TrEMBL record:
UniProt-recorded Gene Ontology molecular function terms: D-serine ammonia-lyase activity
GO BP terms in the entry: D-serine catabolic process
Organism: Plesiocystis pacifica SIR-1
Organism placement in taxonomy: Bacteria, Pseudomonadati, Myxococcota, Polyangia, Nannocystales
Domain of life: Bacteria
Pfam family name, one: Ala_racemase_N
Record's protein name: Amino acid aldolase or racemase-like protein
Keywords: Lyase
Domain D-serine dehydratase-like intervals: 288-380
Family: Belongs to the DSD1 family.
SUPFAM superfamilies membership: PLP-binding barrel
Length: 408
């Protein structure tokens, strides 16, 4: 496809988005997050097919944070999910109960005492769900054992495969001889977010370390491992390495050649963003999340939008916070909190970006963009189909009301 063809397609898409929100013209306060549910369903189906089965994918919900998306994942057959915050945990448990399915949720964050108690309280409210937490180190494992309640708390050990953010190195975990009372050991978490799309060899070396540790653990009866031992790796930038790693391969034959069950955990691919281009090409992703923004000021050679760092990609790097759909020649300058100046390379662009005009932004980083918004508008093609709340942050807060949970 030529650049001109892809610009024409983007313009069509921008027009369809504008038609979708037209019924809200009088109340659409920008910047506003708009989610295309058709694109969400397309992306979920693409990942399920790439993974080979919904069982092989434990998506991280920190990207999407909305009941309507969790319901779409459930409809696609997913039952294993990953969260980072208590708000996300509450949302997923509530949605699983509303959909009448028993979910299996990993809180993939090294919980401290108060947060661990919060997670246990939520688990007690929705006992049909299976919850796991992450142990960061042998000392944290002991602490989790002390904080666990009357039922054994299920844990995955966080193995640092070189990312240097959380978890303990394989050698440190290797010294673990027994699972402390009060806990049960469900698997190993080796998130390799430091590897890019081209780092296959390095990624595979890390997976080798993870499998060697799992093998050693499966031979230790005092670890009391029961059921499928999970090896959980990889987000959007490395799932392809993990799915190509023979040590994780699934077999349709019984017994499986590998004594563990491997899953990948990309979350960004459900919405897609500019940072995820290789995965988007690999999976044929569609862009599902947009920020509707308006021109609030026009000057010589520039138009300023109302989506600053509080509207789109607060953690922008040198690539800028977003692209303007249908206007590849426009380069966003450095955003301030509420303002995003665009440099206009040709004066003719000034006419399409006149004062008050809608501009559709594709976030550079969709996870942090979603987290800025309290609400999303849901569309399908050029139709508005509903709106609903987004959970954000760790803070324990009042449960969602019925009205807030309204669906399309
Ligand atoms: C622990 C963990 N798992 C999974 C993911 C999902 O990765 P991605 O957002 O690249 O899809 C992340 C992302 O930061 C993460 O921190």
């Amino acid at each position: 496809m030529t650049d001109a063809d892809s610009t024409a397609l983007e313009r069509d898409r921008a027009e369809a988005l504008s038609r979708a929100v037209a019924p809200l013209e009088d109340e659409l306060i920008t910047p506003a997050l708009v989610i295309d549910l058709d694109a969400v369903e397309h992306n979920i189906a693409a990942m399920v097919q790439r993974a080979g089965s919904p069982q092989r994918w434990r998506p991280h919900l920190k990207t999407t944070k909305q009941a309507v998306v969790i319901s779409a994942l459930i409809r696609a057959g997913l039952r294993h999910l990953k969260v980072a915050t208590l708000d996300e945990l509450e949302l997923v448990l509530r949605t699983g109960a509303a959909e009448d399915v028993a979910l299996d949720v990993l809180v993939a964050y090294p919980l401290q005492r108060a947060a661990c108690r919060g997670a246990l309280a939520l688990a007690a409210r929705w006992p049909e769900a299976q919850i796991h937490v992450l142990a960061d180190s042998p000392a944290h494992l002991e602490a989790l054992a002390a904080w666990s309640g009357s039922d054994p708390l299920s844990v995955l050990l966080d193995v640092d495969l070189g990312m240097g953010r959380t978890g303990s190195a394989p050698d440190r975990w290797r010294a673990l001889e027994a699972t402390p009372e009060g806990l049960s050991l469900a698997g190993l978490h080796g998130y390799d977010g430091h590897h890019r799309w081209t780092h296959r060899e390095a990624a595979h070396a890390g997976y080798g370390q993870l499998c060697a540790l799992a093998q050693a653990f499966l031979e230790r009866p005092a670890l009391r491992i029961q059921g499928a031992f999970e090896l959980l790796t990889s987000g959007t930038h490395s799932y392809a390495h993990a799915l190509a790693y023979p040590g994780f391969a699934e077999s349709k034959e019984a017994p499986s050649p590998n004594p563990w069950l491997h899953r990948v955990s990309p979350g960004t691919i459900v919405f897609n963003d500019r940072r995820s281009k290789p995965a988007a090409e690999d999976l044929g992703l569609r862009q599902a999340a947009f920020v509707a923004s308006r021109v609030i000021s026009v000057g010589p050679g520039r138009a300023t939008l109302d989506a600053g760092s509080k509207g789109v990609t607060p953690d922008a790097d040198s690539r800028g916070s977003c692209a303007v759909l249908g206007h590849p020649a426009l380069s966003p300058r450095r955003a301030s909190e509420e303002h995003l100046p665009l440099a206009l390379p040709e004066p003719s662009l000034e006419s399409s970006l006149e004062f008050g005009a809608l501009a559709w932004l594709v976030p550079d980083h969709v996870c942090t963009t979603v987290n800025l918004h309290r609400e999303a508008l849901w569309i399908r093609g050029d139709r508005l189909v509903g709106r609903g709340p987004i959970v954000s942050g760790h803070r324990p807060r009042a449960p969602l009301t019925e009205a807030q949970e309204a669906r399309p």
